[in-house]
Amino acid sequence: MTPLRAGQPGDQFAERADLELPRLRRLVLTAGWNLAESLGLPGAGYLVGATFGGQAVGMVVATGVIWFTVVIRKVAVRVVTGLLVISAVVLTLQTALVVATGSTLVFLLQFPLANLALCVIFARTARTREPLVATLATEVVGLRQPASRNPAVDRFFQRATWLWAAIFAASAVGLAAAMAVDRPAAVLQLVAAVTIGGVVAGIFMSILLFVRVLRRFDLQVRFTQA
């Protein structure tokens, strides 16, 4: 039995599908929109602000942009995604540090501190019935589970949440160590490399864990036609 394939409405597979994903186009649009709200828009705000007013102004503009997005989402659809809330809270803390001190050292310190904060956020939910990765999977890629929860899938989400907590912890330690021994310009380059590398590694390992669970417990995923 193939663990991952598209199902058609009304067929036997569709009736017994364990998990459900939107069609590829809808999945990409949903994920892209969530990432744009949480990362793209504040990132663009930072670049504009920093160009005209320096790092502190860039941070303030980015924070303003992301909280404006939160308000617009709350008013328009009455739903604010977990990814957007996390990004807003972490960015607000970073901005407060940078603006309060005006220090280049603190500007760099915000990056390991942000990773440490993300580590704590993920780790705090890992043992609960609603691990953060499960929430993000629902909101960011549109993954749907049946009303009857599968224990194997719940364990996967808990382990994946611990995995992301560990990735953010390792990133925080690595960036803190780099700050102690390297130049600021080199640290900024390392921040970009660690951030991109950590996200790619986390996604890759999460997918491997997910596929392993599908195969081990003979679970199935259906792609919706809507």
Question: Mind explaining what this structure looks like?
Answer:
The protein is 76% helix and 3% strand. It has one domain (12-223). The longest helix has 33 residues, at 184-216. Strands 1-2 form a two-stranded parallel ribbon. The chain has 226 residues and is mainly alpha-helical. The chain is built from eight helices and two strands.
Q: What multimeric state do the chains show?
A: single chain
User: Helix content range of the residues, please?
Assistant: over 70%
Structurally, how many domains make up the residues?
1
- Count of distinct strands: 2
* Biggest beta sheet summary: 2 strands, parallel
Uncertain regions: pLDDT < 50 for 5+ in a row?
1-16
Structural class: mainly alpha
Separation of termini?
25 Å
Sum up the overall morphology in one term. globular
Sequence-ordered SSE layout with sheet pairings:
Blueprint: H1 12-15, E1 19-21, H2 24-53, H3 55-76, H4 82-101, H5 104-126, H6 132-140, H7 151-181, H8 184-216, E2 221-223
Parallel strand pairs: 1-2
Helix pairs in contact: 2-3, 2-4, 3-4, 4-5, 5-7, 5-8, 7-8
Throw out a few tags for this protein.
8 helices, two-stranded parallel ribbon, single chain, 2 strands, globular, 76% helix
Short description:
With 226 residues, the chain is mainly α.
